[in-house]
Write a structure and sequence with these properties.
Order of helices and strands: EHEHEEEEEEEEEEHEEEEEEEEEE
Radius of gyration: 21 Å
Number of strands: 22
Helix content: under 10%
Distance between the termini: 9 Å
Strand order of the largest sheet: 1-9-8-2-3
Number of helices: 3
Shape: elongated
Largest sheet: 5 strands, antiparallel
Length: 275
């Protein structure tokens, strides 16, 4: 469960491949699923129990906030499915779409109680069924994605566009790098000044890897030979202008003068999905 392939691709294309995410939804449409909707919205049973999907205003979520290792938005209004036409039991998941019928699946998530624990939805025939304000939570991890990027993605689901897509991304080397963009960057060790620029054209097609969507660079990231030494190198970050998008830890190592700093294309991969 989590974001759909459609939405994962939209965000990867926006952040790295120069293809803007486009108009954000103003209305979401809630669905019910008998099992994990996975990446495509499978196992939907909404019309088995109701006349159709539940309409939900996209702005009716809280502002993104950090909860543990996640950025999360929480529903601020009830999600109303209306009167059931059949009894339902032990239904574990809901989903969101961009249309009342058909359309693009945006993501699926477990029903939870006010404490965030997973629950099962049960109701009788003729019951009015709704989920209270605060009972729908959408969380995206910040273990490798920055708070800035996750907020762009969550706010898109809330109806706020992501603006223009960047035409390049810059790779930075660091001795400290965190999800809020705090960085102790290694600079002036190579003639280019320390960052390597990747054009939006130099990314592969998006593929499915496990439960994620993934892209990789199609060219080596070649900083060239170092002109100064640096100690404690342990992190790599990918920036859009001054904003951190993704980051990763590497084994701590020292850089010596004259060392060639090259990351092969096959080794520089970015995944977005449900891990």
């Amino acid at each position: 469960m989590g974001l759909s392939s459609y939405l994962l691709d939209k965000f990867l294309n926006h952040h790295f491949k120069g293809i803007a995410a486009g108009t954000a939804p103003t209305t979401l449409y809630g669905s019910i699923h008998s099992a994990d909707p996975l990446l495509t919205g499978v196992n939907e049973v909404t019309t088995t129990y109701f006349s159709g999907r539940a309409s939900y205003t996209a702005t009716n979520f809280s502002s993104p906030a950090t909860l543990g290792n996640y950025r999360q938005i929480v529903s601020t209004a009830s999600l109303n499915f209306g009167t059931s036409i059949a009894a339902g039991s032990n239904l574990p998941y809901f989903g969101f779409w961009d249309a009342a019928t058909g359309g693009n699946f945006l993501g699926g998530f477990a029903f939870t109680d006010s404490l965030g624990s997973k629950i099962l939805l049960n109701f009788g025939s003729g019951d009015t069924v709704s989920r209270a304000s605060g009972s729908i939570k959408i969380g995206l991890d910040i273990g490798s994605w920055s708070i800035y990027a996750r907020d762009l993605q969550l706010n898109w689901l809330k109806g706020t566009g992501m603006g223009s897509a960047p035409s390049t991304n810059d790779v930075a080397l660091a001795t400290l790098l965190t999800a809020d963009g705090t960085i102790t960057e290694i600079t002036a060790i190579v003639a280019t000044g320390g960052r390597f620029s990747i054009s939006s054209a130099n990314w592969s097609a998006i593929t499915t890897v496990g439960n994620t969507r993934q892209i990789q660079t199609t060219n080596d990231i070649n900083f060239g030979a170092t002109i100064a030494a640096a100690s404690g190198f342990n992190a790599i970050g990918l920036f859009s202008s001054t904003n951190l998008i993704v980051f990763a830890s590497v084994s701590t190592q020292n850089i010596v003068v004259g060392q060639e700093l090259i990351i092969p294309a096959s080794k520089f991969k970015v995944s977005l999905g449900n891990v």
